[in-house]
Amino acid sequence: MTLPASAPPAAPGTPPAVLPPAADVFLQRATRFAELAAGHALGDWLAFLGRLSAAQHACLQKMPAPALPSAAALALAHEHRMPPVPAQSWPRDPVWRTVLHCLCDDLVAAAPDALRSQLAALPTRPVAEIETLADRVLHTELYGDDAAVLPIVAAALQVYWTHMAHDLPALAPLDVPGICPCCGFLPVGSIVKSVGEIGSLRYLHCALCNTEWNLVRVKCAACDATAGISYRQLEGPALVRPDAVKAETCDSCKSYLKIVYVDRGGRDPVADDLATLALDILVDAAGYARAGPNLFYVPGNG
Question: What sections of the chain are H helices per DSSP?
Answer without folding.
Answer: 25-37, 43-62, 71-79, 95-107, 113-121, 127-138, 150-167, 269-274, 277-285
